[in-house]
Amino acid sequence: MADADKPAIEVRGLTKSFGNNLALGGIDLEVETGKTLAVFGPNGAGKTTLIKILASIMKPTAGDVSINGLSLKDNAEAIRSHIGIVSHQTFLYGNLSAYENLRFYSRMYDVPHYQKRIKQVAAMVGMESRLYDRVGTLSRGMQQRFSIARALLHNPDIVLLDEPETGLDQQAIAMLWELLKEDSGKKRSVIFTSHSLERGLKACDELIIINKGKIACCRPGNTLDLCGLEQLYKENTGSVNATA
Amino acid sequence: MQLLNKAFVIAWKDILSETRAREIISSVLVFAVLVIVIFNFAFSGSQQEMRALAPGILWVTFSFAGVLSLNRSFIQEKEEGCLEGLMICPVSREAIYLGKMMSSLFFMLLIEAIVLPAFVLFFNVNVITLPIITLTLLATIGFVAVGTLFSALAVNTRAREMVLPILFFPIISPVIISAVSASELTLNGAPWSELASWVGIIAAFDVIFLTASYLIFGFIVEE
């Protein structure tokens, strides 16, 4: 499905308002295939709204989103099968076991040979031994690991991460980034939001800082060090709240 | 076929989840039986009098139990953002609606299948007849068609337990009125032909509101 000439993700004039409240005010961005874009910004800047629109959970008020050259407006269903999303919410049913949750999502995504793939992704997140436990009985960090397994189940081209490190320990955070890079040798395009400037800077190829629904700043990741990013963040948001 | 297949996957997930938690069936069943017991103590009279009261009591029980059941339908989807998890799947919003509707229909029919014999036991009025079962089935389809839509709408509001009945009962009243009237006729021995107009109203309601809810659902969950 990927069109080699087109960016993996292309956003033009994206606007979203909730009544009189403007959440996103004309966002333009591009993510090339295999590249990682970090989105920083204070609370309420519009990061989660941006992720939700890209994931087609929410409709934009105006603007266009293209994924692999296809318009999200006209091809949402087809595009969704190429997107994986990890959020601070797990999207897992607490009454079901992790295996039953993953089986449910496998059927929704038409994952071939899903029994094998479920075991594979559970092993990737280091949770094979808890695969048959009820999700509600697992710790927050374990649930988040299974949430990562759920997002990677259908081997997506594009991964959207909205504060994915919630509840994860240091080892699991490192594992998350490894998994995104290496799964069946696939070059994934990633957009992630984070409050951690340090981890975000390490993981990204490019970064943007959003403030009040607008892109305040856009830079290649390799042109900045942590001090430079902290300074840039402060200048563009007037805040030092993001954790270094 | 793909749409129905995905809808069945969603419905099966709900049924599996319910067999683990027993949040809907057990609580709604206890509530429904309690309503019947209370009415049984409140009204005592001859067989003739009970036959006159039976349709009202039966449909009040079904309606209140139904709202309680529908209230739970989207609450588990709200926990841990599971509704968003469904929405990022490569399936249409209509499949999600149909899946949720099918599971609600299954739960309600199961509750009704238990409530009907309990009703016979407490009131000594035979409501396990083909016309009553047909009416129950038809009315329940309309009930869950509208209820699933409003449940999705209400789940995002703060006072969802109150919002659902306030929105739901005015819309569903034609079904309840028709079901009560038709049940009254059949309990008094009226033939099928006399029920036809009431059955027609319920069937028309089912078709119109099932189609409308199916089409509107996507806008409700995305906005």
Q: If you had to describe this structure to a student in words, what would you say it looks like?
A:
The complex is a heterodimer of chains A (244) and B (223). By secondary structure, chain A is of the alpha/beta class. Chain A is built from eight helices and ten strands. In chain A, the strands form two sheets. Chain A has a six-stranded mixed beta sheet with strand order 6-7-8-3-9-10, sandwiched between helices. A four-stranded antiparallel beta sheet of chain A has the order 2-1-4-5. In chain A, strand 9 (206-211) and strand 10 form a beta hairpin. Chain A is globular. Chain A starts with 8 loop residues before the first strand and ends in a 7-residue tail after the last helix. The model of chain A has no long low-confidence stretch (mean pLDDT 89). With 223 residues, chain B is an all-alpha fold. Helix content of chain B is 85%, strand content 0%. Chain B contains nine helices and no strands. The model of chain B has no long low-confidence stretch (mean pLDDT 91). Classes of the chains: A alpha/beta (244), B mainly alpha (223). Chain A binds chain B through residues 52, 55-59, 77-78, 80-81, 83, 85, 87, 89-96, 100, 104-105, 107-110, 134, 143, 150, and chain B through 6, 9-10, 13, 16-17, 20-21, 76, 79-82, 84-92, 222-223.
Topology:
The complex is a heterodimer of chains A (244) and B (223).
Chain A: E1 9-18, E2 21-31, E3 36-40, H1 47-54, E4 62-67, E5 70-71, H2 72-80, E6 83-86, H3 98-108, H4 114-124, H5 140-152, E7 158-162, H6 170-181, E8 189-193, H7 197-203, E9 206-211, E10 214-220, H8 226-237
Parallel strand pairs in A: 3-8, 3-9, 6-7, 7-8
Antiparallel strand pairs in A: 1-2, 1-4, 4-5, 9-10
Helix pairs in contact in A: 3-5, 4-5
Chain B: H1 2-21, H2 25-42, H3 47-73, H4 75-78, H5 82-87, H6 93-123, H7 130-154, H8 160-187, H9 192-222
Give the gist of this structure.
Chain A is an alpha/beta fold. Chain A contains eight helices and ten strands.
